[in-house]
Design brief:
By secondary structure, the chain is an alpha+beta fold. Helices cover about 55% and strands about 10% of the residues. The chain has 21 helices and ten strands. The strands form two sheets. A five-stranded antiparallel β-sheet has the order 1-2-9-4-7, with no helix packed on it. A hairpin with a 5-residue loop joins strand 1 and strand 2. The longest helix is centred in the C-terminal third of the chain and has 33 residues.
């Protein structure tokens, strides 16, 4: 509860919600299987809080896990003769093999990150950073490792209360998918237009981890869409089938709005495999009525029409498909540069260390330099400052911006006031845009050359932003949020900021924590154009690079074992075995073009599917 008490937005509400999660998990610990997949997709408010190392998803997992373990302790005290460990035999090896592999990866990651700094100094720095940090710092090792830590800690209690686990998990995936589809409809409707298929905006929904690119939502949809098909296939006729059918249509709409060729292929093959294998193994729907068969046929026709409508109703999807060969060539080059980071036998065997890809790729590959850097530091007087840097070297594409989300007002131009220091002339790009995450719409902008004299001796520098007034016509414009972003454009010109103020047209300063007195609270970052350093765009190569052949082999064995157990369930006429198996297979397929181990929320949901695989045989 300590994290909830310090929540930057609504500590009282956070305590109430986490207390409810503890009570729910204590009362019905088996509902952990439902609760986590239902809530994890929306349990993150990083753009508003500034949290990075941990977020609301971690608080949710800890609260739910704490309540379930409390119930386990009470049950053991009341019924000491009850079975203690109910982990299936096929999964017990995980307790023995994965912890040493994880600890080795974490140790190598921290050791690599500290360089020549003593361990005590590095650990003290980690403690001082708290819930904040950056991807090329030691904290990224802990951030990436936490999903496997949560998975290993959850396994015993999940198996202890595994009654009807596959069904609970499936229902949780359906609820989680509903929240994601609602966020997609909101994002498209408010910022782009639900039926505008020519705009180049690609959805991110509530996956704020995509502020540095990546395919979090792509991977999630590959995992979740098979469960939407299961919902429609098993729902009885009437309003429940109509709701399930609507969710399936919304899910495919979300898939189409990613404009991701990888998720297109993965979801298409998953749905074809579901229909084929269901027919092959004679898995019949609970409702065998003529109405249900006709409804499913009608749904299939609508799905095909939906795909064709997006394809012929706009230009972006055909453009993306037409660039496939060129994009594949660039991606293969990206993969090769990543593999070239492994230079010694120990790195091939054990990897660079958990979470160390961005630091190595951003400094050792000329084409993959970091587009910017953000460092929080304390002055000798104890004041918090932020150092912003531009590209790692000349020619590196993109920018990395310091950002804060704000409510937009109408009536004129905004002004930005800055106080800080530069040692050499630096060009700053300051923007205030209508923006959900990665894509900007209407903007007020100013590019300024900052000289040492203009910010000397603690003087304020004021910039007038130029651009159209933010509209107040219609509901859509009033619901759009704004993002203030500040980035350094040139290489080798770091800028220190001591305070930032945003003055609205009415003359009011509207930023939270403008002088950084509360550290990085409410502040975050967004990358533009260049996302290469943060992601390998291949699940298997990222595992190889960070965890070595040993880590890749262990996790591959876990995934293959899960698929085998799901296949055994299908052979025994267990429908949920088919859904879980296809979901895992779709995730492994899209993993060829997307990496996800650096996104803990999504990794945890994949972990839940792997853990439930031995239980689907008895579902």
């Amino acid at each position: 509860m300590a994290g909830a008490l310090h929540h930057p937005l609504t500590p009282a509400l956070a305590v109430l919600l986490l207390g409810s999660a503890v009570a729910w998990a204590t009362w019905r610990p088996a509902d952990l299987w439902f609760m986590l997949p239902a809530l994890l997709p929306v349990a993150n408010f990083t753009p508003w809080t500034g949290w990075w190392l941990v977020d609301e998803s971690d608080l949710l997992i800890l609260a739910a896990m704490g309540g379930a373990y409390l119930r386990w302790g009470l049950d053991s005290w009341c019924k000491p003769a009850a079975a203690f460990d109910r982990t299936p035999r096929s999964m017990r090896w995980v307790y023995v093999v994965l912890p040493p592999v994880l600890l080795t990866g974490v140790w190598r990651g921290l050791d690599d990150a500290r360089g020549a700094v003593p361990w005590t100094a590095m650990l003290a720095d980690l403690w001082a950073q708290g819930v904040y940090g950056d991807y090329d710092l030691p904290g990224n090792t802990l951030r990436v490792a936490k999903s496997m830590v949560w998975g290993l800690m959850l396994m015993p209690v999940l198996y202890r209360y595994g009654h009807a686990a596959p069904l609970r998990l499936a229902r949780g995936m359906i609820f989680g998918l509903f929240w994601v589809c609602a966020a997609v409809v909101w994002e498209r409707g408010i910022y782009v237009g639900a039926l505008d298929f020519s705009d180049h905006t690609r959805i991110t929904a509530w996956f704020w981890e995509m502020h540095v690119g990546g395919g979090a939502i792509d991977f999630y949809l590959a995992l979740a869409v098979p469960f939407a098909w299961w919902a429609a296939w098993t729902a009885p006729h009437g309003w429940r089938w109509c709701a399930a059918g609507a969710l399936m249509l919304l899910s495919i709409y979300a898939v189409l709005m990613t404009y991701s060729r990888g998720v297109y292929l993965s979801v298409a093959l998953a749905l074809i495999a579901l229909a084929t294998l269901a027919h092959r193994f004679r898995l019949v729907a609970p409702d065998r009525s003529v109405w249900h068969r006709r409804a499913m046929a009608c749904l299939a026709v609508l799905l095909v029409a939906e795909v064709l409508g997006v394809f012929v109703g706009g230009t972006f999807m055909p453009d993306r498909l037409g660039r496939s060969n060129k994009d594949l060539y660039h991606r293969i080059e990206h993969w090769q540069r990543g593999v070239d980071l492994l230079k010694t036998p120990s790195q091939w065997l054990l990897g660079l260390g958990v979470g160390r890809l961005p630091a190595h790729y951003g400094t050792q590959t000329p084409e993959g330099g970091l587009p910017g850097q953000m460092r929080w530091a304390r002055s000798s007087e104890g004041r918090t400052q932020v150092w912003l840097s531009g590209p790692a070297w000349p020619g590196v594409k993109g920018e990395l911006a310091l950002i804060q989300r704000v409510a937009l007002a109408t009536g004129g131009a905004y002004r930005v006031r800055l106080r800080g220091q530069v040692h050499a002339p630096a060009r700053l790009l300051v923007q205030l845009c209508e923006q959900h995450l990665l894509y900007s719409f209407e903007c007020q902008v100013q590019t300024a050359l900052v000289l040492a004299s203009s910010v000397a001796a603690g003087r304020w520098m004021e910039l007038q932003l130029h651009g159209p007034d933010f509209a107040s016509t219609g509901i859509r414009s009033t619901l759009r949020e704004g993002v203030l972003s500040i980035s350094v454009l040139g290489a080798n010109t770091p800028v220190r900021l001591d305070a930032v103020e945003l003055i609205d047209p009415q003359g009011q300063q509207i930023l939270k924590n403008p002088d950084f007195a509360q550290g990085p609270r409410y502040w975050s970052s967004i990358a533009h154009t260049n996302f290469l350093p943060w992601h390998m765009d291949n699940l298997y190569l990222e595992l190889l690079i960070e965890r070595g052949l040993l880590g890749l082999a262990v996790l591959a064995a876990l995934a293959v074992g899960a698929l085998v157990m799901a296949a055994q369930g299908v052979a025994h006429q267990k429908p949920l075995s088919l859904i879980v198996g296809i979901s895992i297979a779709a995730a492994l397929l899209i993993g060829v073009v997307i990496s996800v181990i650096e996104i803990p929320r999504v990794s945890t949901m994949l972990w839940l599917l792997l853990v439930v695989s031995p239980l689907v045989r008895e579902s």
